[in-house]
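Hi R.,

As promised on Friday, here is the backbone we talked about, encoded as structure tokens. Could you run it through your design pipeline when you get a chance and send me back a sequence?
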């Protein structure tokens, strides 16, 4: 739910908010903190969820509250829903959100083999 005082989150607001989030992640101090968390997590998704994601989320919540969203998990969900609705309408929003996703959900290197093994009974 959006906080009182900001009744509508416009397309223009959405673009500005996404750019501000990306800019926040690129502030040297923040970039260093995020990189430390990413290194500490390695290729372990659970560690990433414990170390990197909360830090990135906190930075994101500091930005979205300036656009009328509550600085909590519910506010972040509402912001994400709004971005997704604009993403369908606007290529700039889609590109900015893709950049944001690439930071929040980096590619994971999966060790081979990735295919399931089948035992003698044909069940994995």
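Update: got your reply. Pasting your designed sequence below so it's all in one thread:
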């Amino acid at each position: 739910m959006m906080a009182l005082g900001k009744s509508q989150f416009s397309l223009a607001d959405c673009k500005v908010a996404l750019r501000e989030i990306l800019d926040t992640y690129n502030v040297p101090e923040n970039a260093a903190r995020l990189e430390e968390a990413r290194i500490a997590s390695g290729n372990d998704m659970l560690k990433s969820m414990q170390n990197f994601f909360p830090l990135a989320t906190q930075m994101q919540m500091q930005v979205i509250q300036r656009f009328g969203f509550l600085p909590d998990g519910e506010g972040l969900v509402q912001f994400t829903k709004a971005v997704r609705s604009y993403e369908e309408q606007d290529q700039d929003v889609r590109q900015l959100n893709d950049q944001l996703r690439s930071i929040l959900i980096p590619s994971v290197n999966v060790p081979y083999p990735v295919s399931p093994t089948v035992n003698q009974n044909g069940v994995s």
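One thing I noticed while checking it: The CA atoms of residues 6 and 106 lie 32 Å apart.

Thanks again,
M.
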